[in-house]
């Protein structure tokens, strides 16, 4: 498994291209990454099999529709966040919408959306030769999901950052649910995993368990 990160211009969202052989998936296609993703994918002779999102906020899904259309693949995200794709601004605060600097008329929703469920809290998703273990991790949004493509790395979206965690004050967020996720899902991750968060620098589970104040035992 191989992973490359393309950083979006808007909010610095980390868009990940995960590949195995010539098959790949794109995770968190934030605003302005489409051209760079196309150059990477086409330049390396990769075949996208799906576009995914760790959650449904606009800064993680804005270019998903464009990439889905170009490569004729569906959009996948947790069923609890699928409703957000119809109106990417509908669940954001006015201040955050303004900060994004995006315009509603420019949004292109994915033509085909295939939500997935996580019975028991997890699911195995297979797209060609790419397999992702999806762990439901609500709190930032109802459908926030961690993706683990192998035994070395986990994509944490806006659940876990280097030194911090995702905000819970937007529509669908919950501080109590986030605390449960941090205790029950994040703390259970293998400390040896590298972490690629939705924004900011990479880290490791071990480092966050040792230093992240939001993961301190209470």
Automatic annotation (TrEMBL):
> Is-annotated flag, keyword Hydrolase?
yes
* Cofactor needs: Zn(2+)
Which Pfam family, any one of them, does this sequence belong to? Answer: Lactamase_B
Q: Which residues form the signal peptide?
A: none
What organism does the record attribute this protein to?
A: Promicromonospora aerolata
Q: Per its UniProt entry, which superkingdom is the organism in?
A: Bacteria
Q: Which named protein is this? A: MBL fold metallo-hydrolase
Q: Which UniProt keywords apply?
A: Hydrolase, Metal-binding, Zinc
- List, for all copies, the residue spans of the domain called Metallo-beta-lactamase: 12-199
